[in-house]
Amino acid sequence: KFVTYRAGIPVGVKVGNLQGFFVYGGYEVEYPFFYKEKTFRNEKKDKFSVWFSDRVEPFQHGFLVGFQFPYGGNLKFKYYLSEFHNKSYTESDGFKPYEGLSANVFYFSLNFNLFTPVKVYYDKETREQYY
């Protein structure tokens, strides 16, 4: 199991009614600053973590697309174009643990805004929402 914590800079475009439903898409460059790894062998768990590791690619980038729904719902898909691990990483004994491992990450996320007003009034004539 591999986990990274990252800082990123996104660039995106939103299309639609920004007070209601809209679609967005973009590109993001991220820098992984913390790495965790857990390994399970023979019912034994080994784990370690390290700051600013060479085990992953130094900069990772990917595309995202999402849908913002009225009342605070959001659905997003993200795909990373870069590999997760640094295949040329070499441990002190000369072993390359990620040499044959190929992994491109993608994910779906579903989230809801907690502080969106509960009552939304919709005027059918002007097609606008009032909070």
Fold and architecture overview:
The model has no long low-confidence stretch (mean pLDDT 84). A hairpin with a 4-residue loop joins strand 4 (60-68) and strand 5 (73-80). The protein contains no helices and eight strands. The chain has strands at residues 2-16, 22-41, 44-51, 60-68, 73-80, 106-112, 121-123, 128-130. It is mainly beta. The strands form two sheets. Strands 1, 2, 3, 4, 5 and 6 form a six-stranded antiparallel β-sheet that branches.
Give the secondary structure arrangement, pairings included.
Blueprint lengths: L1 E15 L5 E20 L2 E8 L8 E9 L4 E8 L25 E7 L8 E3 L4 E3 L1
Antiparallel strand pairs: 1-2, 2-3, 2-4, 4-5, 5-6, 7-8
Features:
single chain, 131 residues, mainly beta, 6-stranded antiparallel sheet, two-stranded antiparallel sheet, 8 strands
